[in-house]
Amino acid sequence: MAGEKPEESAAGLLAWLDRRFPVTSTWKAHFTEYYVPKNFNLWYLFGSLALLIFVIQIVSGIFLVMHYKPDAAQAFASIEYIMREVPWGWLMRYMHSTGASLFFVVIYLHMLRGLFYGSYRQPRELVWILGMALFLCLMAEAFFGYLLPWGQMSYWGAQAIVNLFSAIPYIGPDLALWIRGGYVVSDATLTRFFAFHVIAIPLVLIALVAAHLVALRQVGSGNPDGIEVREGPRDRHGRPLDTVPFHPFYTVHDLLGVAIFLLVFAAIVFFAPEMGGYFLEYNNFVPADPLQTPEHIAPVWYFTPFYAMLRAATDGFTWVLAAAALLTALSWLLTRRRSLRARLVGAVLFLLLAVLLRTEDAKFWGVMTMGGAVGILFFLPWLDRSPVKSIRYRPGWHKAVYALFIVDFLMLGYLGTRAPTPATHLAAQAGTLIYLAFFLLMPVWSRLGRCKPVPERLTFRRP
To answer: 119-164, pLDDT tens digit by residue?
Structure first.
C-alpha cells in the first residue's frame, strides 16, 4: 500500500506466513526461547559442525551425481571427467572427499564429548541411541560410497568387506551373493551401492538427524558439570537460572567455530586433499583391475580401528576370548549385588559364549568382534554405573582409563592401515582386548573410587 513503511510490510508478510506456517513459533522454540546451559565449552561445537558437513556433503554430492556414471565401464572415466573437464568439478570432488573424512573426525570428537560428560546418561538415553544409529548409518553411507570411484583400492576394499558377510552361519554366502549381485564385485554391485549411497541411506540419515534433534529438545542439552539445569532454580518467568537463550549466545559461538573449521577445510581442499594417502588413497587413482590384487588392502582411515579388530581374531585369539568369557561367567555368578536368578542367567549366557567361541571359525568371530565393537556403544547408558555423570567429578584414575582407551583406539586405527606382521598382529590383539574390556568391565570400574561432590549450580572453572 502507498505510504506503508518497509518494516510494516515485513511484519504483515510475517504475520501472513505465521497464519499458514509456524515460522515465528519454530524460531522461538529452537533458537530465541530454547534455553541451554551457560557453561558450554569447545566440546559442544561438534554437533553443529556435523550438521554443517552433512549439508556440504549433500550439496557437493548432488553436483557430482550430475556428471557421474554408475557403470563399471565408465565410472572411473566419469570421475576423471569431473576432475579435468567439468568447470570447478575438481573442487566439488575434493570437497566431497574431504568432507567425508572430516565428518568422521567431527563425529568421533562429538562421541568423545558424550563419553567425557556422560551425555548418554538419564534422561538422554534415547538421544545417545539415536546418535549411535546415525553413526552406524554414516558408516554404511561411507562404505557404499567407497566403491563408486571404481579405483583399485575401492574395488578390492569393497570385495574384501562384502566377503565378510559370507562368514555368517547359514545365510552368509547367500547374503554376500545378494549384496554383490553376483560372485564378484561387478557392475551390478556398483549400481546397488550407488542407489544406497545416493538415495536410501541419505533419506534414513535425514530422518535420524531430525529424530536426534527432537529428542534433544525434549530433554534439553547436557553440560560439562552433568547437572540437570531444568531441575534447578528458576526465575520469575519460569526459566532455569543457569541457562541462556541459544540465540544469540551460542549461534555467535558456533559461527566462530564454523569460520575456523571452514578455514581448515579450505586449506585441506586446496593444498592437501589426499592428506598423505589417508583421505584419498593413491591406489584409488588407478582404475579397478579385477585381475590384479593390490599388495595391501585396507579400508579408508575411519574404518581402520574396527578393521584392526577384525584381523586380530585368529584361532589362537578365540582361545583368549573364550577364557575371558569363562572368567566373566564366574565373576557374574559370584556377584552378590544381583539376584540369584540374574546371576545364573548371566553366567549361563557367558558359558554359552565360551562354547560358541570354540565351535565357530575365527573369521566369524572376527566379524562378530568388529560388529560388537560398534554395537556395544548402544548399551553405554546402562554400562556406566558411576554415581556422577561428568568426568570432572570422577576419581583421577578414571581419567587415566579414558586416556588409555583413546590411545588404544588411535593405535588400532594406525595398525589397521599397516600390512599385517607378527608384531602388528599381536599389538592389534592387545588393543582389541583393551577396547572390549573398557566397555565390558565398565559396570565394575565405573563404580570404584571416590567421586568429588557435584555442585548444586553450574561452574565455569574446572574443579
So the answer is: 999 999 999 999 999 999 999 999 999 999 999 998 998 888 888 8
pLDDT in tens, 46-100: 999 999 999 999 999 999 999 999 999 999 999 999 999 999 999 999 999 999 9
Q: Is 30 annotated as a binding residue?
A: no
Torsion, Cα of 131, 138, 60, 62 (10° steps)? -100
Cβ(247)–Cβ(172) below 8 Å: no
Confirm or deny that 212 is annotated as ligand binding. yes
Which band of pLDDT confidence, cut at 50, 70 and 90, is reported for residue 13?
A: confident
110 is in an annotated binding site: yes
DSSP 338-372: S-HHHHHHHHHHHHHHHHHHHHS-HHHHHHHHHHH
Q: Which residues pair with 282 in a beta bridge?
A: none
State pTM to two decimals: 0.91
Grid cell, residue 204, equals 534414513
Instruction: Kindly list the domain boundaries of the chain, sorted by start residue.
Output: 295-443
d(CA 22, CA 165): 47
Phi, psi of 395 (to 5 degrees): -60, 150
Is 398 annotated to bind ligand?
no
Nearest to 45 by CA among 259, 301, 302: 259
Q: Which CATH class is domain 295-443?
A: mainly alpha
Residues 24, 12: Cα–Cα separation, whole Å: 13
